[in-house]
Amino acid sequence: MPDLNSERITQLAIQWGGQFLLALLVLGVGLWLTGWIARHIDRRMELLGVEVTLRRFLRSLISLSLTVLVVITVASMLGVATTSFIAVLGAAGLAVGLALQGSLSNFAGGVLLILFKPYKMGDYVEMQGIGGTVHGVQLLYTVLRTPDNKEIFVPNGPVANGNIVNHSTQPTRRVDMQFGIGYGGSIDLAKTTLAELLKADARVLSDPPAQIVVAELADNSVNLKVRAWTESGDYWGVFFDMQEAVKKRFDAVGLEIPFPQRDVHLHTVKD
Q1: Residue 267: inside a domain, yes or no?
Q2: Alpha helices in the chain (DSSP H)
């Protein structure tokens, strides 16, 4: 008489062995397809010119999502209750999301910045009250390098929702400067002197032409506003060099650059 336990074990081994082998086959094929799909989508994004950081993130996200789908399918084939499994994953995802609200906000901001590209590597920008050259655009942070060679990591969430001033998108910039002369000085001489200095500087563009106007009759001076155009890379050089050149030329032609003065009257009080 055959052993019933042995027959039962044999039947179970055949049944579960077949399912297990089929599950392994589905797992292998599924993981291979996951990699193939991720690589194919990555190549398509590369052809479309998608930013490399965003491409890598999307490829990882697609690969992870498909892998989870394959694992759930295999678990279902092996008789695992996938409903509870999915519920656990959902609860875990919610908990992680609540714990990482700030990071997720920065991540979403990073995706928007990479996608819409308000600035790129090498641009000089101002954001969140900070100015510097863009040294890197990451998913969570934008790395700025300040003129004194400090690196500042600015969270992408506030940046994406705030104002961004990009000083490098246009090939030219306008340099605004203000110089004051005394009320006894000649406005015409001051204008002529400033125009000569601008013309002598090869970095100052002739088109559009520079403007020299009387901007204000202040308490202690007549203020002249100078608006000149330069290449973006020459902005600070022109600005600083003009300050020195104007002071020297005004001194040479006898134009005084006034400073605040006060008259003090002393009264003697007799006992």
Answers
A1: no
A2: 4-47, 52-77, 82-99, 101-116, 156-160, 187-200, 235-253
Q: Which residues pair with 180 in a beta bridge?
A: 223
List the domain range (segments joined by +) for residue 244: 172-253
User: 126: domain CATH number?
Assistant: 2.30.30.60
Q: Find all residues with CB under 8 Å of 248, minimum gap 6, and list them.
A: none
Report how many domains make up the chain: 3
pTM of the model: 0.60
Report the chain's terminal Cα–Cα distance, integer Å: 141
Residues 8, 95: one domain? Answer: yes
Q: CB within 8 A of 224, min separation 6: which ones?
A: 178, 179, 180, 181, 187, 190, 191, 194, 212, 213, 214, 215
Tens-place pLDDT, residues 107-131:
778 878 877 888 888 889 999 888 9
Instruction: Supply the pLDDT for residue 63.
Output: 83
215 found inside a domain? yes
Average of pLDDT values for 225-233? 94
3-state secondary structure of 100: coil
Contact 8, 48 (CB under 8 A): no
User: CA-to-CA distance for 151 and 207, rounded, in angstroms?
Assistant: 37
Highest mean pLDDT among 19-28, 64-73, 139-148: 139-148
Given a cut of 70, whether residue 57 has pLDDT beyond it is no
Residue 147 DSSP class? T
